[in-house]
Design brief:
This is UMP kinase. The chain has 181 residues and is of the alpha/beta class. It contains six helices and eight strands. The protein folds into two domains: 65 residues, no CATH class; 99 residues, Acetylglutamate kinase-like (Carbamate kinase).
């Protein structure tokens, strides 16, 4: 879990390098690098236009049985987030159903279809919580240059999982794939 705090601090450094004021909140006591998570403080930072990154916010805050996905959704719900962004080191969600050739990536899929297809990008509790709280999820490849910025700006990137979820697919072979340098 310490790695999630380290990743949050690295992400903060990247944002601040390009002039985006950012705060990292965590359940760990690290006063030189982070601040403790409180809902009111997170909302206040957002009201001031700051980006809030949550790192290791699960186990020591009374959420021992929650995965990091479920805890992220819980925090998104608490701060009334409009969307949950989840970055991966791989590409989007693919159709891996029996009989599928596995190279069709979903652009848009419903929560129910996501669960029915046995997608493993997020745990079922997290997806169910997103559905119950109407929090759309964007799953995207964070190693693709520019994808984090595009996701933050609301551009179409990766797979959108939400209530409407008309299944749209595109061929993975048509996707531009690049590797980080």
């Amino acid at each position: 879990m310490m790695a999630s705090v380290m990743n949050a601090i690295l992400l903060q450094a990247s944002f601040e390098k390009i002039g985006i004021e950012t705060r990292v909140q965590t359940s760990l006591t690290m006063p030189d690098a982070t601040e403790p998570y409180t809902r009111a403080r997170a909302i206040r930072h957002l009201e001031k236009g700051r980006v809030v990154i949550f790192g290791w916010i699960g186990t020591s805050m009374g959420n021992q049985l929650f995965t990091t996905d479920t805890t992220a959704v819980l925090r998104a719900s608490e701060i009334n987030a409009g969307v949950l962004l989840k970055g991966f080191t791989r590409d989007s969600l693919y159709d891996c159903a029996p009989g599928s050739n596995g190279n069709k990536a979903f652009e848009h899929i419903s929560y129910k279809e996501f669960e029915a297809r046995g997608a493993n990008k997020m745990d079922v509790t997290a997806i169910t919580f997103c559905e119950e709280n109407n929090i759309p999820v964007v799953l995207f490849n964070m190693l693709e240059p520019g994808n984090i910025s595009r996701a933050l700006c609301g551009d179409k990137v990766g797979t959108l999982v939400d209530q409407t979820g008309t299944i749209n697919q595109f061929n993975a072979t048509d996707m531009k794939v690049s590797t980080p340098e």
